[in-house]
Amino acid sequence: MQKKILIADDEPNIVISLEYLMRREGFEVAVATDGEAALQAMAARPPDLILLDIMLPKKDGFEVCQQIRANPDWQQVKVVMLTAKGRESEVAKGMALGADAYMTKPFSTRELVAQVKQLLALPR
Amino acid sequence: MSLAGRPSAAETGQATLFVDVFKRTRGAEGSRVWRGSARVDELLPLIGRFIGPERARDAFLAYARSRGLSSIADLRADAELVHYAETLLAGAIGAASARVMVASVAQEEPLGLDEVMNILDEASQVRAYSVQLEEKSRALEAASAELRAANERLKELDRMKDDFMSTVTHELRTPLTSIRAFSELLLDDPRMDLSERERFLGIISKETERLTRLINQMLDMAKIESGNAEWHTEEVDMRAVVRESVDATAQLYQESSVTLDADLPESVPVVLADRDRLIQVMLNLLSNAVKFCEPGRGQVAVKLRNEQDCLRVDVRDNGPGVSAEDQAVIFERFRQVSNPHTGKPRGTGLGLPISRQIVERFGGRLWVESVPGRGACFSFTIPLHGRQHDRQSAEPELEAGKTR
């Protein structure tokens, strides 16, 4: 079955590139451009994995991650944090809040695809 | 003092003191004429009050023993004992004061003028010392408060720098992320169809521009701050500056569905300034205004006026406005206010600080007036007559008549 990926990022061009990349790899893609919209999209149709930017409007990535982990229905959802700040403390915070992996922007598209496939236990 | 065992260290110390006291007592012996009357049971508590009852009793006992007596009870309150008591007391409260204290118990003759003067001297010295001490302690307190405040300011500055670095890092990485991602997508798929290809290349090119702008702005700020910026001062027509800036941002306003109106007088006197720098200020104010306006409902109005001794430009928007709290900080470096529409700050937090530095460089002012919820109006002035705050005063100032 086709795996679903939710992209939560507010930077239009980054969303375009991620959307293209994930579609190319055969995933079904949904997009949310702020934290609240991301949670709504989760509720409407839980994805298998969320690519979650930290600096999101309305609710930041940390809060979204926390709420995902607090919801028993979403325990299976893999969370990949995307950070452009590159602070060690942010990465540590994301992992502590229950993220499965993080990627520092700018990321390598190949590495991102490999990471996503690994978390979803798909052949690379 | 225990005579049975070895004296303790404290006792030895006290004994030394007494020996010293005896010496001084003996030195004055012959000269003393006793004319009053005193009682040992009054002297002893008096001395005890100042040096401690135990020490006083020990001292009196030692005195008694030095006279071959076995107890304080055998002592006679003669002139010598009174003098001894005074000497004991002098160590604690000063000689003249001691003399008065003892005299009050010993019912001596009334005090002489000299003695009164001595007391006053001592008292005023003590007061002077205490005033000096108080002053010193106040000064120390003030100095330590200043140090504490300076330390807090440094910490705050450090925190701001850290936030700034983090913001700048984020701003640099964001365009880079798109550039890298789209380059890799194009590389991986040589057979991507042409329209997609063009679209992606267009994004790469735009993001490259954005990155360049950001780097330039950071360098610009650094140059202005260090005094290394180049300034080309010339006669500038502000109407042209405003028109050019409005034209340059027209597309941005169109894309954001925000209207932009310019109200320019027929003519204005020229000002002495750097034309490109003034355009830079205008572009900053115009792009800020559109950033904070609600798409579709946003309105920005630019107005140029000739005031008495300066030209004034207002850039008024109908955005969310700037709170009083934010008004105080938006012109400071590294500070930026989050945008209620996107929720996150954009840019480097350097645009307004740079603009203010430019305007002030030409003797003008840049400020904001705003009622939250009712938009904001950013205004700046450039003085006529070419009055400049030119730190290097490299360029000769033109005469007032010439600038008109």
Description:
In chain A, helix 2 packs parallel to helix 3. The model of chain A has no long low-confidence stretch (mean pLDDT 92). Helix content of chain A is 43%, strand content 20%. Chain A is globular and about 30 Å long. Chain A has a single domain, classed as Rossmann fold, CATH 3.40.50. The two termini of chain A are 16 Å apart. In chain A, strand 4, helix 4 and strand 5 form a beta-alpha-beta unit. Chain B has 404 residues and is an alpha+beta fold. Chain B folds into three domains: 103 residues, no CATH class; 79 residues, Helix Hairpins (Orthogonal Bundle); 170 residues, 2-Layer Sandwich (Heat Shock Protein 90). Chain B has twelve helices and seven strands. In chain B, the strands form two sheets. Chain B has a five-stranded mixed beta sheet. In chain B, strands 1-3 form a two-stranded antiparallel ribbon. The C terminus of chain B is likely disordered. Chains A and B meet through helix 1 of A and helix 6 and helix 7 of B.
